[in-house]
Amino acid sequence: MRSISTTMFVTLDGVVQGFGRPDEDTRGGFTQGGWGARYQDDVLAAEMAKGMAAAGSMLFGRRTWQDFIGVWASATDGNPFTTHMNAARKYVVSSSLPDADAWENSVLLRSVEDVASLDDDLSIVGSAALVRSLHAAGLIDRYTVVIHPVTLGGGARLFDGPAPLTEFELTSSVTTSKGVIVAHYARVAPGGRSDA
């Protein structure tokens, strides 16, 4: 059975916008981009590497896919993340992209329904708008929420609007040397058993 897992980098006040770089996502006048950089350490890198080692394909929203092209598609740094990102099958969900030819091994999907029809195990990094849509459709099976000890007071949040009642079970957690909590959750099926 296909499963969808997502990794979301969030602040204590739930902001997911602009984690990596100051210019990553400035929509709405957001000026706090790059807030996650100072929290990187070996523990967090090891946790993220575990996720990269999992079998399956990657799934992106249009904005994240296009941003990742600029970071990963032409990189030749020998970083294992670079090798993984470029070799993996990548699905991008977009109603506006004409094609997915800009990054090798990419496949264009047009809708959440197209995602639901896939047989691959899928992992999502970022792509908050897509995650919201998939969550609303009951398609997210596991969340890895990487909680950073900072509040920003503004910016796009993981769940900006209504989200359906969905229960999750904490399956494991790790705290890094810089106070980041990496919490792994599995969706609880009706009747109280996790789907993990």
From TrEMBL:
MF annotations from Gene Ontology: 5-amino-6-(5-phosphoribosylamino)uracil reductase activity
GO biological process terms on file: riboflavin biosynthetic process
SUPFAM superfamilies, A to Z: Dihydrofolate reductase-like (SSF53597)
Bacterial bifunctional deaminase-reductase C-terminal domain ranges (all copies): 4-182
Pfam family, one: RibD_C
Official protein name in the record: Dihydrofolate reductase
Source species of the chain: Lentzea albidocapillata
